[in-house]
Write a structure and sequence with these properties.
It is built from 18 helices and 13 strands. The protein is an alpha+beta fold. The protein has a four-stranded mixed sheet with strand order 1-4-9-6, with helices on both faces. Helix 5 packs across helix 11, helix 10 packs across helix 12 and helix 13 packs parallel to helix 18. The longest helix has 31 residues. The chain is globular, with a radius of gyration of 24 Å. Bound molecules: the ligand C[C@@H](NS(C)(=O)=O)c1cncc(N2C(=O)c3ccc(Cl)cc3C2(C)C)c1. The ligand C[C@@H](NS(C)(=O)=O)c1cncc(N2C(=O)c3ccc(Cl)cc3C2(C)C)c1 binds next to helix 12 and helix 13.
Amino acid sequence: LGTRAAPAPRAVLPFEAVPRCPGNKWMRVLQIWRQQGSESLHLEMHRTFQELGPIFRQRADGRGRTAERERLPRLDGVGARARAPYDVGGTHMVHVMLPEDVERLQRVESPQPWRPPLDPWLAYRQHRGHKCGVFLLRPRPGGLESQPGAPGSVNGPEWRLNRLKLNPDVLSLQAVQKYIPMVDGVARDFSQALRARVLQNARGSLTLDIRPSILYYTVEASSLALFGERLGLLGPSPSPASLHFLQALEAMLRSTAQLLYLPRGLSRWTSARVWKEHFESWDYIVQYANEAIQRIYQELALGRPQHYSGIVGELLLRADLSPEAVRANCIELTAGSVDTTAYPLWMTLFELARNPDVQHALRQESRGAQAGIAENPQTAVTELPLLRAALKETLRLYPVGISVDRQVGSDVVLQNYHIPAGTLVKVQLYSLGRNPSVFERPERYHPQRWLDGRGSGTRAPSLAFGFGVRQCLGRRLAETEMLLLLHHVLNNFLVETLTHEDVKMVYRFIMMPSTLPLLTFRAIH
Ligand SMILES: C[C@@H](NS(C)(=O)=O)c1cncc(N2C(=O)c3ccc(Cl)cc3C2(C)C)c1
């Protein structure tokens, strides 16, 4: 008769009972400074979860200070005073790695979710007086009303205003239908150019470090989807400006990794040269994006185009956002669309090369869909389910963003612990994707697991692009660029490699392979 009383819910444990990550904050700062970054951060997190369980806490790094005035690093004699980044409120950080905790975070999420500021990037914008794009937008500094978690706090209305005006032209399925033919054209050109190089060789195969070609592809495809412009990067002579842009982007990301987690007050002395390199690389990135916006602005001013001319054209024609806001977001979209997409493409090609059975199954799918996609590229979104699953599998094992961060706006219970409002919660994607109780045989590259659903497959959602209203704005552009490139490569080449060992991944703000084995492309009809 079920007379047994339901087990009493376990009493929620206090925050102080959350297991604590060992190690002293200043030792970590010293280690980061000495190693010029924290390249194995994902592995340290993974080990700590194995020691302490699926949740542990850590004192936030130096950013937990109150908003005080702070001198910026002196740049070529130009001293600048700027407000320190807004106080992140909580001085506690909690790491989790289970999908159930992501669900709990989503349930309490505010309409303007908040992630902590990226200090070196904010420092540059404050120094130059530039506006921030959606990634960097946070509540206005000062004033209690913008304290996260304070009663009735309005967390970043500017973020929401920007985001709601960007989504229709960047993230919506309607936008994808408009730019997918453009991306398909670039992916075809990439395959044709590679095929020409392969067929020049007597053996009909080409072995190379594919990294530069993939980077040129992501810049070329994003430039067309964003600005309606071809740069000619897939041809024999890439433009010097684009090469300089790629170098500046690399320098910006590298210096970000070196400055991240170091309190600005300290790094401006210990890493003055890195700050200088950081600001100079930003200067070029901003200039490069501004020149692209200037060109499209002039063409639109001279006459309204009769047809879709790319994402930025739509944003300018809608005129929902101020020109400065369009500019700030364009910089994020232009610079954010290169490495984030190139590395997962690389890793997928490598996994296909060392898993020939998976590669064969994907080639069968692409062959079957080839005619339909040639006729109408928009069908690629629905005709390549196994290839889409392969992208999820790549991002499960190699998440470019290693964590999804939220400054919780209200109290939440995670793993039966009380987590107070204002706490920074970091969902560690590397550990989440390799958890054997969530993904069976997690080390295995098995795209089918995403299609088997509730059966032998996985029930976990793919979290590589984050979650909720603040999830990745470039998700669909990235997915489209990767899907179409792989589709055309699979229809034109066998991809092979001699290397079958795992590749060492390093965290340099973006999770990337430290080296990539040579890949052989063998032409097939
Ligand atoms: C790697 C991952 N980190 S995350 C967001 O998960 O912490 C990530 C995911 N999507 C986009 C990015 N971006 C960049 O790479 C980048 C470069 C320059 C600028 Cl101005 C803006 C960006 C953004 C933040 C869009 C980074």
